[in-house]
Design goal:
The protein has two helices and no strands. By secondary structure, the chain is mainly alpha-helical. The protein has one domain. The model has no long low-confidence stretch (mean pLDDT 86).
Length: 69
């Protein structure tokens, strides 16, 4: 039982870290003026980053809802 709790704690930390990093990246993109050329270069990375992070957060929320104990 303790191992399951540690697993869920680790997953929760990972989900929170992912959510906070997504918020930070969003604020950086909105409030720090970046040249258009630089945004064009990193735009593909940003898209993959958002897909990955939302997948982590969404899977944590979904699995937690399914495996209520």
């Amino acid at each position: 039982m303790e191992n399951k709790n540690n697993t869920w704690k680790s997953r929760r930390k990972m989900a929170w870290f992912s959510l906070i990093s997504m918020i930070i990246v969003t604020f950086v993109l909105i409030f720090i003026p970046l040249p258009i050329e630089r945004l064009k270069v990193i735009s593909e990375f940003i898209v993959y980053f958002y897909f990955g992070v939302t997948g982590i957060v969404g899977s944590y929320v979904g699995f937690k809802a399914v495996w209520k104990e």
